[in-house]
Predict the 3D structure of the following.
Amino acid sequence: MKIDRFNVRERFVHWLVAISFVYAALSGLAMWSRHLFWIAGVLGGGETVRALHPWGGTIFALVLGVMFSRWASQMKLDAADREWLAKSGRYMVNDEKGMPESGKFNGGQKMLFWVEAAFALLLFLSGAILWFPEITPRVLRLGAVLVHPLAAIGSIGGIIVHIYMSLFAVPGSLKAMTEGYVSARWAKAHHPKWFRQRTKNENESAR
Amino acid sequence: MQTVAKLIDTSLCIGCKACEVACQEWNDQEFTLGTFGGTYQTMPQLEHNFWNLIKFNEFETDGQMSWLMMKYQCMHCQDAGCMKACPSPGAIVRLPNGTVDFNHDNCIGCGYCITGCPFDVPRLSPETKKVYKCTLCSDRTAVGLEPACIKTCPTNCLTFGTRTDLLRKAEDRAHELQADGLQHAGVYNPAGVGGTNVIYVLKDASAPESYGLPRDPTIPWTVSLWKGPVKVLGSMVFLGGILGTFFHYIRYGPKKEEEHADED
């Protein structure tokens, strides 16, 4: 049995966020260290990267804003999520006995959502300052050169875990974001509360 | 090769601005009219096409107006903040004679050097989207000529030579001025940036701010953090993330659906 998880609009928005993030991250890494400057060569040269990275970041911020407004209401942490997070050490070692049941998103996914959104906001604000060094106040730039890489490190670190979870750690997850559905078994195993909600009212209008 | 330097003796500057003209001429810069600030100063700040500015700092003592005139340009720091901040290999280079020079073929125009510079010198050109500053006339010094500003100075306020010689000369001159009654005369060669290849003799070295020079310039600490510990942190997070998730998979493997299904 298939259960719809993400509708086509959600999938489009997610992948626009993902693609613009990957571009912004790679072009940013090219300007982050001289040892990674070779990435600039792959992306069309240093001047191109310098010119387009801020636009990539702007597009990322815009589509992320759309994703944020669509998902924020579903990402509120409830008591069960907080308990889940307190016991997340067990989740990491695949020993989930006694952990609270998750809804559509578990506590970890919700935290990733908020943390990445916060990092994105920091990246956008500090990035706007670094975009125009000739006109932005020096004291703001001196802060931005720390905030921008730190937020980038945090967000890339989070996304490494996100990609690992979806591709390898939780088999069957990727289909939710490509074709839009998961198996009933998957839903029951990883998001039992959501599975029960979905099977109770069988109207499959994706929500 | 010996490090070369430029000595600026502010006590001899008459504010003729010949060095400004020589700089524009030799470097083939078009003069674009900037802001007129109601002073004798050509423009308020350095520009991407104006690398050498005589600052006319006005001050008053006992109701008498006088000037602290001073030539302002790239200081060619021994520990250069622009070089530390630059992400593009070969865009900012240190020549064998110690000069900090920009190679515009490699400059990507990010402007990080503007933030890294403690003297607020590099300027981004809106046309070429690249950053410019004084080259210490590297195209002249390479063939044994002195920089254009020094060549043209009519009062011997400017001297070109090896850094070692000029530092000695600067100390001598400061002592001379002290003996003449300027008891605060001294040398400006700030240690915070490892010393500079542009050395000043100031009539009042106790207050470099009155000349528009920072008292104790250093590479900004946020820039040093960014290019030091933050880089290490980043490498640790990226490598740790990739290796950590890989070995997590090797140790714990994927989550199983069956086990959970059985619990119900």
